[in-house]
Write a structure and sequence with these properties.
9 helices, alpha+beta
Length: about 290
Amino acid sequence: MVKRKEPEVAEKQFPDESSSSDEDTDMLDVEFEWFDPQPEHDFHGLKTLLRQLFDVDAQLFDLSALTDLVLAQPLLGSTVKVEGNETDPYAFLTILNLHEHRDKPIIKTLTDYIAQQAMTNPSLSPIADLLKPFNQAEVGLILTERLINIPSEVVPPMYKMLLEEISWAIEEKEPYTFSHYLILSKTYREITSALNQENSRPQKKKKKNAAKEENREIFYFHPEDEVCQRHATMYGGFAYLKEESDGQADAKRTFQELGIKPQGHMMLLEASKFESAVKALEDFMRPS
């Protein structure tokens, strides 16, 4: 069954990509619906979105096991669809109790990965201690992703429903009383396109250019991350363990002269700050 249609964002217009010119662009009306995760319909769609979320590091994880775990808690989290319940999700949001599931191989792999990556950034290093087995912290890992052309306005309803679902789960004595919420996301930097460097330049100049690109401005795939991190105890980025080729960066070019280099991003929120972060998201995304 459909969970909800949000009047403010249920209908959205998108350009018709079959249009022959920019000046003669037809708009398509799209109606979004929110559903509980459905094991019989959502496995392949969720797995694809998880692969997109983890980017080049997706190959480090058993994504089938992770998808099964997400689908094993159908009353927690949401998917967004446009053509009914039996279609693939265009977006999703879920939360996993890292402490409760710590003995599952996929959660152990994921926890080790997060701790390892947190140690590469001084701003994130306390997260590694928070995830150690002896630590009594109850960390809820939030995973959320959407297809690239899906508007950010679909996100606040998912967070709002998650708050309600956690409250109901706690009333039923389910293990969702968290001390912290950890949001795993991704950002990117613009980099010089390899296509513009076909005539090889001196090695020193290449190294200097690489260092310059490391200091370039960070951009957000998900605008809502900028809102969430205002309420975060700590946040920061990390390089993926698997290197992508220059060709992959060029495939993700944002402008003619530039490619993009994605990186991972984490935000840790104390439980007491989570509700206010969700409210801020609703306010930020509310149509003017």
